[in-house]
Design brief:
Keywords (chain A): Amino-acid biosynthesis, Cytoplasm, Glutamine amidotransferase, Histidine biosynthesis, Hydrolase, Lyase
Shape of chain B: globular
Pfam families (chain A): GATase
Number of strands of chain A: 14
Largest interface: A-B, 34 and 30 residues
Structural class of chain B: alpha/beta
Main location (chain A): cytoplasm
Distance between the termini of chain A: 17 Å
Order of helices and strands of chain A: EHEHEHHEHEEEEEHEEEEEH
Largest sheet of chain B: 8 strands, parallel, barrel
Strand content of chain B: 25-35%
CATH superfamily of chain A: Class I glutamine amidotransferase (GATase) domain
Pathway (chain A): Amino-acid biosynthesis; L-histidine biosynthesis; L-histidine from 5-phospho-alpha-D-ribose 1-diphosphate: step 5/9
Helix content of chain B: 25-40%
Distance between the termini of chain B: 11 Å
CATH topology of chain B: TIM Barrel
CATH architecture of chain A: 3-Layer(aba) Sandwich
Radius of gyration of chain A: 16 Å
Subunit structure (chain A): Heterodimer of HisH and HisF.
Number of domains of chain A: 1
Oligomer: heterodimer
Radius of gyration of chain B: 17 Å
CATH class of chain B: Alpha Beta
Order of helices and strands of chain B: EEEHEHEHEHHEEEHEHEHEHH
Largest sheet of chain A: 8 strands, mixed
CATH topology of chain A: Rossmann fold
Chain lengths: 208, 252
């Protein structure tokens, strides 16, 4: 069972639709018990960083996600959900994130001659040997974002070149972030979600 | 770098797909979910659903159409037509749309763009513009109500204003070219590309695979939309992509 964290953000339902289509058992939930009992967590997200953090705080989900990360539970953050995993964002001033992966979220510089938002299908390049990165290596996936993460090289699994190197997949132990939308990236995106499901089945962690 | 996007447009009336030629003649071409799935298979990069349902009561059908399509088809979906307020946007986004396109309602109430962008993010808000070149004033004039009503707005100025108000993308239809199959209006898209820094989708005039190469290489647009050439099998997405690759355009 995968818990999709429900905190009033845009694309939650599309992630659910993709999992339902794949026959992957899932539940949309804001209930700490239910979330902590799941084999894996997906943190979706579209929109503004600060508002999303506030929304997680209001639902008292920040400690829940942190606890799940600490317990070794596989976690997948998608788009804004990926960015929330980091220390802080510079979107509209400085906002603290979940602080699970080291790094910060910064604007894509419009000065480098690219259009912002970064919207459309872009190519991924795996930078590390990893089963999830392998699914997306040399594949186009659908991106929609105006900010990107500056992460430590050792946490980056794949990048996409948009004037700056945008980390498109990051991973720190059991916690994964994907900047693009696998639920909107056709067959290849669905293959990535299936890969995450397999990870939740094989994860080695204590349930206490 | 980003791949250029090929975008079939489905005209939807009461939940059924139709295609109006020059917004007038209609012919039923089927089930939106099946058509969307077929386009996904062909390699379409995105789909636009234009709700042409005339009656207010019929409008709930598009929400069901999007809900059903988004459960089977996993690519970006944009919906336009009949969006008058933020709650219309919310219903469609909740049903599975990734972007909503506003046209006439944004002309009469430009604050709608800002309100949508603030609530859902700029990336969700597409400003759709229908425009015709006026050879006397030498200006691209904005039309509303499905191209029936002229406005005093200049399309390039309106595009700039829309972006500064929060539109994250422009979908611009050349009414002069629409239905002619004589190629896209390169001049229009060159002017737009020079004026704004958000993605632009060109619409109107696609007839041959080369027309797509032309607009991507000669005007800095990000996507190209077409309906009848794709709907009636005159061109396939695969064919067009092959041509684009040959001409050095990045496609997925």
């Amino acid at each position: 069972m995968i818990a999709i964290i429900d905190y009033d953000t845009g694309n939650t339902r599309n992630v659910k639709k993709a999992l339902d289509y794949l026959g992957i058992k899932n539940v949309l939930s804001a209930d700490p018990q239910e979330i902590l009992a799941a084999d894996g967590l997906i943190l979706p997200g579209v929109g503004a960083f600060r508002k999303a953090m506030l929304s997680l705080q209001q639902r008292q989900l920040v400690p829940v996600i942190k606890a799940a990360a600490k317990a070794g539970r596989p976690i997948l953050g998608i788009c804004l959900g990926m960015q929330l995993l980091f220390d802080q964002s510079l979107e509209f001033g400085q906002t603290a994130g979940l602080g699970i992966i080291a790094g910060q979220v910064v604007p894509i510089p419009a000065t480098i001659g690219v259009k912002v938002p970064h919207m459309g299908w872009d190519l991924n390049q795996a930078t590390t040997a990893d089963p999830l990165a392998a699914v997306f290596d040399q594949q186009f996936t659908y991106f929609v974002h105006s900010y990107y993460v500056q992460a430590k090289p050792k946490t980056i699994l794949a990048t996409s070149d948009y004037g700056v190197k945008i980390p498109s997949i990051v991973k720190q132990q059991n916690v994964i972030g994907i900047q693009f939308h696998p639920e909107k990236s056709g067959e290849i995106g669905l293959a990535g979600l299936t890969q995450f499901k397999e990870l939740t089945e094989n994860a080695d962690y204590s349930r206490n | 770098m980003l791949a250029k996007r090929l975008i079939p447009c489905l005209d939807v009336d009461h939940g059924r797909v139709k295609k109006g030629v020059r917004f007038v003649h209609l012919r039923d071409v089927g089930d939106p979910v099946k058509i969307a799935a077929a386009y996904q298979q062909q390699g379409a990069d995105e789909l636009v659903f234009l709700d042409i349902t005339a009656t207010h009561e019929g409008r709930s059908a598009i929400v069901e159409t999007i809900e059903a399509t988004a459960s089977q088809v996993f690519m970006p979906l944009t919906v336009g037509g009949g969006i008058h307020d933020v709650s219309d946007m919310q219903r469609l986004l909740k049903a599975g749309a990734d972007k909503v396109a506003v046209n006439s309602a944004a002309v009469s109430n430009p604050d709608l763009i800002t309100a949508g962008a603030e609530k859902f993010g700029r990336q969700c808000i597409v400003l759709a513009i229908d425009t015709k070149f006026n050879p006397i004033s030498r200006q691209y004039e904005v039309y509303v109500n499905g191209g029936r009503t002229p406005t005093p707005l200049n399309a390039i100025d309106w595009a700039k204003q829309g972006v500064s108000r929060g539109a994250g993308e422009l979908l611009v239809t050349s009414m002069d070219k629409d239905g002619t199959k004589s190629g896209f209006d390169l001049d229009l898209y060159r002017q737009l590309s020079a004026a704004v820094n958000v993605p632009i989708v060109a619409s109107g005039g696609a007839g041959a695979a080369e027309d797509f190469s032309d607009v991507f290489t000669n005007a800095n647009v990000d996507g190209a939309l077409a309906a009848s050439v794709f709907h009636y099998g005159e061109l396939t997405i695969t064919e067009v992509k092959r041509q684009l690759l040959k001409d050095g355009v990045i496609v997925r």
